[in-house]
Amino acid sequence: MLPFQVKCHVGYVPSGQRVVGLSKLSRVADVFAKRLQDPQRLANEVCSALQHGIKPAGVAVVLQCLHVHFPNLESVFLDSNHQGWVELLVSAGSGVFENKNANIWADFWSLLRFRGINVEKTRVRDKQNHHWCPSRSSAGAIATFKMESVNPGMVTAVASILRSLGEDPLRKELVGTPARFVKWLMNFQNSNFDMKLNGFVSDNGDNFKEKHVHSELNLSFWSQCEHHLLPFYGVVHMGYMCTEGSNPIGKSLLQSIVRFYGFKLQVQERLTRQIAETISPLLGGDVIVVVEASHTCMISRGIEKFGSSTATIAVLGRFSTDPAARAKFMQSIPNTAVSGR
């Protein structure tokens, strides 16, 4: 029950001289996308609707799906290379496109390559991919899933929500969905975990020596928007003052602080401030924190703005009064906006 992004590519061979407007093709895809879906079923439904609606000689539909691969609390601390999005291609064809080995499919794939779709580097769903959702198909997710640990009252509540949406929780594709959703949601329970810094004190140098700006960039995080109960994710950039020859704080400790505050029901502004206030006493009080994030609530609802990102900043100590220090840190941040990838 997590959002996935879709780019829908449609090819068709007109019957006679009938050509369909692009807006109509887009509306057909939107109608079937705005429901609980499986990528292959979505491709099949769009293909079937177009075939019956415009009656061409054939229709080809290719969906470029990006599914959020949200880690659980245990795996994110163990795997620093966790991939946030998994890309999947699915296709459906009718009429002259019904045979996937037909030459006309080769022509269509060639056109898609002009759009930058590299089939060889993208996971294509086949019959062996029983679970298209990366959170279900990963061995780690299956191994850590324990049905008995899930609150039955919460499972019943999610099943009730599905029924309110007109869905049947006993449909084979939805069996287990309420429990999986609850298991994922419990990553964000308000636990009384302690931030154990083990008495860490940073060696940021003599206060009487000249200090320079040190940056730690692209610390990844995942979190859960408390307004819409949808994920948001991104990177955190930190800057602090230290003298030449002093030992910078370990990146692993900073990453742990970021993830500690990320795995909660959050808003980005509070997350930014909490990180800054936590690292400030460790680093002599002069800190700056910038958080860049992409919010799925801006993709799957509301303005539905793909590729949008939000940046927040918190400054303490010298960074709040020294524009030159702030500017130097901001210039160190790579010019790569967080997007839906």
TrEMBL record:
Broadest EC class assigned to this enzyme: hydrolase
Domain GTP cyclohydrolase I, residue spans: 1-68, 156-333
EC number: 3.5.4.16
Record keywords: Hydrolase
Any one GO molecular function term: zinc ion binding
Superkingdom of the source species: Eukaryota
BP GO terms, sorted: tetrahydrobiopterin biosynthetic process; tetrahydrofolate biosynthetic process
Pathway: Cofactor biosynthesis; 7,8-dihydroneopterin triphosphate biosynthesis; 7,8-dihydroneopterin triphosphate from GTP: step 1/1
GO cellular component terms, A-Z: cytoplasm
The keyword Glycosyltransferase belongs to this UniProt entry's keyword annotation: no
Presence of keyword Hydrolase: yes
Record-stated family: Belongs to the GTP cyclohydrolase I family.
PANTHER family reported in the protein's UniProt record: GTP CYCLOHYDROLASE 1 (PTHR11109:SF7), GTP CYCLOHYDROLASE I (PTHR11109)
Protein name, per record: GTP cyclohydrolase 1
The organism of origin for this protein: Pyrus ussuriensis x Pyrus communis
